[in-house]
Amino acid sequence: MTTSFRFYIRFLSALVSRYYKGILAGIILGALAFFFSPRIFRLLPPIRPTQTIGIVAQPTLSDLPLLIQSQLSLGLTGIDDTGLAVPALASSWEATDSGKTYVFTIQPGLKWQDNSPLTSTDIKYNFRDAQIDYPDSTHLKITLPDPFSPLPSAVSRPVFKKKLIGVGGYRVTGYKLNGSYVESLTLSPTDQKSTSPVLRYLFYSSENQARMAYKLGLVKVLLDIQDPRELKTWPSTEVSRQLHLDRYTAAFFNTQAPIFSGLAGRNLRLALAYAVDKSRWTGSPQIKSPISAGSWAYYDQIKTYDFDLDHAKQLLSKVEKIPESITINTVPVYLSLAEDIQKDWAALGLDVQVQVSPDIPSDYQVLLLAQAIPTDPDQYSLWHSTQAGNITRLNNPRIDKLLEDGRKTLDIEARKSIYADFQKFLLEESPAIFLFHPHTYTISRQ
Q1: 3-state SS string for 132-145
Q2: Domain co-membership, 57 together with 98
Q3: Which strands, in side-by-side order, build the sheet including 181-189?
Q4: Is residue 187 included in any domain, yes or no?
Q5: Are residues 99 and 125 in the same domain?
Q6: Does residue 213 form part of some domain?
Q7: 65-74, 122-131, 202-211, 369-378, range with the lowest pLDDT
Q8: How do residues 82-118 score in pLDDT, each as one tens digit?
Q9: In the prediction, which pLDDT does 40 show?
Q10: b (16+ CB within 10 A) / e for 124-158
Q11: 220 CB-side CA count, 13 A
């Protein structure tokens, strides 16, 4: 034991005497690394995970989904939970000349993601019939031919300097195109010290493609999916349901179709409205009006069409010529919903057909679709008789006048009264059966 101990002592002594410089340098470097490495690591950019996200869309770089645009930048204004415009890039604004002229004051000290200062002249709009001037670097002036009270909401859409350079918490760090369409888009946190993940969006033309990409492991998350199908039971997968209060599902009548025009057509529309049993859709909040219940302009003292089959039959008896059949046109995702309504209307003794197509026919009678709700209660483009977006083809002078007045009136209380009347008269006319807020699913791998 003693001989062995002496051997190791002599061996270590010889090793140290021969390599003492290297050993000493190693001890010094180790000590320096111990004391200084935490400071060095703090200076290095954080190691961020990458989250791959699938979306069903075929966007171009100039027309990215609003979700992504909002991560990249801000608008002159933002929109609060009630639909009112609030400051964003603009700290304030003033309307003059009865709402024909708006002057926006840009918040001081803002910078684009390329670190250049944000000035009013960087902000461009392509509003039809509007003149845009820049009195100085902090003010933007928009002059309109007619008063337009929804303008502060219209400028809430995110703006960009060029090449998708914005002022948001994320910036574009890469993309791949297929022709003019974006196949993938990579976003990184603007703040280099942020520990937020890198977001890589992949775009698919159909839900079938998106679900297959998820199964193959190409994406970890799928957003805004209408039908999860087998992914509901896929291993290590969470499926969560998102309610969309910014849109609604409705059965829209073509009020110019022979069976739905005139007084007899109105009675038929009312009968069909009372015949729909909305209580079956307990998973989605029912709606009364095309204006969201959370909006500052919502009016809840409006006519409702609760299920009443007897009253529906009474109204139907006032229709001189009962239609031989009624056709509901819809898209594939709403087929089961259309079949529910088909059964309800069949209870009136009506022959009801359902046609499923990705396109809207020009000669439809009833359309079962989802409709986006504008951020401002102005719904001129959706219900005014002159507008292509008026899919019910409603032609009601009183409603037209209310829609015209609503977008020309600046006082919010006066606007609120106008839109209360709009909702009352629209519901009495019954150009659509307002059903519920739809939902979609987010699918994520655990």
Answers
A1: EEEEECCEEEEECC
A2: no
A3: 170-178, 181-189, 198-204, 50-56, 221-225, 439-445, 237-243
A4: yes
A5: yes
A6: yes
A7: 122-131
A8: 999 999 999 999 999 999 999 999 999 999 999 999 9
A9: 47
A10: eeeeeebeeeeeeebbbbbebeebbbbbbbbbbbb
A11: 10
Q: Does residue 258 register a pLDDT over 90?
A: yes
Q: Could you tell me if residue 231 is inside a domain?
A: no
The predicted-structure confidence for 135-145, as pLDDT tens digits, reads as follows 999 999 999 99
Tell which residue, 82, 397, 364, 356, has the closest CA to residue 246: 82
- Domain stop point among 193, 225, 257: 225
Residue with tokens 């409702």: 304
pLDDT of 44 reads 47
State how many domains the chain has.
3
Both 92 and 217 in one domain: the answer is no
Amino acid at position 361, single letter = P
**Domain of residue 358, residue span:** 247-439
pLDDT digits (tens, 9 = 90+) for 415-444: 999 999 999 999 999 999 999 999 999 999
Distance (Å, rounded) from C-alpha 211 to C-alpha 264?
47
pTM of the predicted protein model: 0.85
Structure tokens at 431: 């150009």
Extract the tokens encoding 73: 């930048």
The residue assigned the tokens 């684009």 is 112
pLDDT of 25: 63
Q: How far apart are CA 193 and CA 205, in angstroms?
A: 35
What CA–CA distance (Å, rounded) separates 171 from 169? 7
Cβ-based neighbour number of residue 400 at 10 Å: 17
Are 185 and 264 members of one domain? no
**Which residue intervals of 101-225 are DSSP H helices?**
151-154, 207-215
